[in-house]
Structures are given as C-alpha cells and as structure tokens.
C-alpha cells in the first residue's frame, strides 16, 4: 500500500503540490491526470525522492520513504519516463538487466528474467536480446523501457507519460500490454498522464490534479458518472461521456441468445468496441465468444439502450 499523506512541494511562490493525501492499494494501477503544470510530475517524483517534499510524507507498506537512503529507495521503485531513457551503447538484455545487476543477482536468474519479460512484451528473446536500442522501433524501445523498470520486481513502478511519444495505434496497444502485464505480475503502478482517455483506460483509480491540488480520487466509472468539479467534467468531456462509459462495460453484461453474423468479439471486450464493430460493418449485432467458444450476441439496440441509461 502506498500512502501519500498531506504532501506539499513549494517552489518559491508556487505550490506545485498542495496538501495531497491519497492511498493506493497494492496490485493496482493509479493514474494521476491533470493539465500541464498541475503538479503531476512533482507528485510522482516525491514518491521516489527525486524531489524532496516541503512537508508531508509518503509511506510504502507502512514505512516512511524519508527513513531510507534515496538511492536504496530507488532500487525498490521502478521508474519509466517518456522517451524510455535506454542506454544506447548497451544491448536490450543489458538494459533490462540494469537494476538486477546492481542488486547482484546471479547470471542465470538475470537471463531468465530478461527472457521472461521480453516474452511477456511479445518480443522474441532470441531475436531481440542482443540488439541495441537504435535497432528497435519506437514502440519496441518503449516496451524495453517498461521491461527494464519491472526487471527487479519493484514494489512500486512509477511511470511519467510513458506512452507520450507513441502514435495513437501503438499507444493503445502499449496501454493494453501494460494492463495485461500488470495483471499477470500483480505490480503496483502509479502513472502520470495529461490524457483522460488513457487514465480511464488504465486506472483502477484515477487521481485528478488541478493547480497542485487533488480534486477527485475515484474509480474511472465514478469520475465519468459524477465529476466532482467543473474542471473534472471538462477533462472528461461531456460529448464523449456515453462512449467512455461504454468503454468500461464488458460485452458479458449484455450478451443474449441469438444469431449474429461476422467476426466475433471476446466477452471481455467493451461495449464501445462492439459499437465500433456494428458501425463499421453495418451489422445490427456482433457474435460473442468466451475462451473461443460462441456464447451468444450483443445487439446494437442493447448497446444504445445501455448508453442512454447511463448518459
Ligand atoms: N524545479 C522547479 N523549480 C521551480 N518550479 C518548478 C520546478 N518543477 C516544477 N515547477 C513548477 O511546479 C508546477 C508543477 O509542475 P509539474 O512539472 O509537477 O507539473 P505537471 O502537471 O507534471 O506538468 P506537465 O504535464 O507540463 O509536465 C509548475 O508550475 C512548474 O512550473
């Protein structure tokens, strides 16, 4: 559990972070979202003490971070930033192994961990292990950056706009990968973004920052359904609200018996994906499968009714 307790950082006359209190549960993703200058990065950097708080404290599993030497603390906390920050003259394997090497892990254990992570990120170890960062695409470099931050199984992974440099399609895939890998490894992640769409897609909890203050800390569904302030409402965007709500509901909630033509979607896909499938192919229903086995269909009408109910 990560407890942020009345944390404040003042630069001259600016309260970059102003009395923020929140608790993040182990094994969850917390997304900190806000406009430029709202204090997101400063908040994140106080957690691993790249920035020292003016007042307040952070506790990780009950232990205050100020009780530990910053460089030791940082070995327990992964950190991934936009543009990945890979060492250009080291191979992919050596980059991923950076912290395990520092921690003195045995060679075999490091190699097994590097291969495990590359496989998790859908990068064939034999093909990628010995390449240099310049020999990878932007999306692959970003994946190696996240793999490196996860390598030593950190208690906490901090990510600052990790997908900021990626184009929209690769970005969506990177978000899905992160979610899948986080679930698999049970990692605890705090991620900063200015993109509400990303926050809603990734967060178990979303923390909205405005002018250094935490203005709402809730689940994505609560943020969309009941924005605490006009600022949060603006960030969510009224027009997109029904679509955003649909993106949070799995097909399994609306599946019914009956036929449907065309390509099927898995039961855990969202109503938003089913809506897109209906609209792009002119279908009035989409077949649904669970573990590859057909379980029924979701109709366009049912999706529309659900969107109207929630709007
Ligand atoms: N080292 C510093 N010295 C002085 N002021 C700073 C420093 N770092 C940040 N600030 C100020 O603190 C405020 C919050 O900055 P911060 O970088 O945390 O915001 P942010 O929400 O992460 O913004 P962005 O999305 O643009 O990165 C800003 O007004 C910024 O100018």
From TrEMBL:
SUPFAM superfamilies: P-loop containing nucleoside triphosphate hydrolases. InterPro entries: AAA+_ATPase (IPR003593), ABC_transporter-like_ATP-bd (IPR003439), ABC_transporter-like_CS (IPR017871), P-loop_NTPase (IPR027417). Its EC number is 3.6.3.-. GO terms for molecular function: ATP binding; ATP hydrolysis activity. One of its GO terms (biological process) is quaternary ammonium group transport. It comes from the Bacteria. It is an enzyme of class 3 (hydrolase). Keywords: ATP-binding, Hydrolase, Nucleotide-binding, Transport. Transmembrane segments: none annotated. Belongs to the ABC transporter superfamily. This is Glycine betaine uptake system ATP-binding protein YehX. It comes from Pseudooceanicola algae. The lineage of its organism: Bacteria, Pseudomonadati, Pseudomonadota, Alphaproteobacteria, Rhodobacterales.
